Amino acid sequence: EVQLQASGGGLVQAGGSLRLSCLASGISFDDAVIAWFRQAPGQEREGLSAISTGDGVPYYADSVKDRFTTSTDNAKKTVYLQMNSLKPEDTAVYYCAANSYGLGAFTPADFPSWGQGTQVTVSS
Fold first, then answer.
1. Which long-range contacts link 60-66 to residues 24+ away (Cβ below 8 Å)?
2. Number of other CB atoms surrounding residue 14 within 10 Å
3. What 8-state DSSP symbol labels residue 116?
4. In the predicted model, what is the mean pLDDT of the chain?
5. pLDDT in tens, 98-111
6. Which residues, 6+ apart, have CB-to-CB distance to 94 below 8 Å?
7. Quick one: which of 21, 64, 79, 96 has the fewest CB in 10 Å?
């Protein structure tokens, strides 16, 4: 069973930074894709980034590619999301998700395994 545990959320002022972590178990990091999504109240879940843990190649949505960076520490089976220059509109619950077959269309339906989410609140 794949288990994902997201952590690192919190309250930060606009312009600040946070680093989220996603600890994974039950999945091989030889060929996993670990993604980050977020969901604000009343909005659809939005894909932010993904990384292929086998080769470390990242993918970013246009909305965050200049501010967010994803990385993987395969020895710790942990994927990170470094978020810089945070804005109030980044306020949301952030989720990590995983699959073992690729990015697909990068929609929530492409990822069968999900963590519990961590709240990020950016104050103005």
1. 61/106
2. 13
3. -
4. 96
5. 999 888 889 999 99
6. 6, 9, 20, 36, 37, 38, 48, 81, 117, 118, 119, 120
7. 21
Tokens of 92: 């949301």
Beta pairing partners, 34:
51, 98
What is the phi/psi pair of residue 27, to 5°? Answer: -140, 140
Strand ranges (E), 1-124: 3-7, 10-13, 18-25, 33-39, 46-52, 58-60, 68-73, 78-83, 92-99, 113-114, 118-123
Q: Model confidence over 6-19: pLDDT tens digits?
A: 999 999 999 999 99
Report the C-alpha gap between 109 and 102 in whole angstroms.
12
Q: Which long-range CB contacts under 8 A does 3-6 form with residues at least 24 apart?
A: 3/113, 4/34, 4/96, 4/97, 4/98, 4/113, 4/114, 4/115, 4/116, 5/115, 5/116, 6/94, 6/95, 6/96, 6/115, 6/116, 6/117, 6/118
